[in-house]
Specification:
single chain; eight-stranded antiparallel sheet; 154 residues; elongated
Length: 154
């Protein structure tokens, strides 16, 4: 693994602008990679996954041995509380956005619905992904990082 020893490019001040939930979900739907946050052995766990946004819900595929597969299978209604995060932040300019969705995740059990997700989502790892998880957002928050207005005192 190589380490980049280059000096960071200095950037000016940034400001965080709150996004409304509609814009936040639109941005989340514009990328395919996010991070699912759930509890495993009473501790927070984060996993990167590829997703699609379907009717305002986040859907990603998983496999039989995954912790989240068994958690959602055992949870019943309404599901397991999770957080989901996606972002696009430029490493040089530090400009971009971040969206966090909190809601209930449940295992997709309908074979027709599962077949649709299997056609839409292609696993990034070479592993059988025969399950799908769907998250219904209850809370959607987001920020956009922009160049700070220098005329406004800090």
């Amino acid at each position: 693994m190589q380490t980049n020893h280059a000096q960071p490019i200095p950037v000016g001040p940034r400001q965080s602008i709150k996004l409304d939930s509609t814009e936040a979900l639109r941005l989340l739907g514009s990328v395919s990679l996010g991070r699912i946050v759930f509890t495993q052995h009473a501790l927070p766990t984060v996993r990167p996954v590829n997703h699609v946004l379907i009717d305002g819900d986040i859907v990603f595929r998983t496999h039989e041995g995954a912790a989240l597969t068994s958690h959602t299978r055992q949870a019943g209604v309404p599901g397991v509380v999770v957080a989901y995060e996606a972002d696009t932040i430029d490493p040089d300019t530090h400009l971009g956005w971040s969206v966090v969705v909190t809601g209930y995740a449940h295992l997709v059990t309908d074979p027709e619905e599962l077949a649709i997700y299997q056609a839409l989502l292609h696993p990034w790892v070479q592993q059988t992904m025969d399950h799908a998880v769907r998250i219904h957002p209850d809370l959607v928050t987001g920020i956009r990082l922009t160049v700070a207005d220098r005329s406004t005192p800090a």
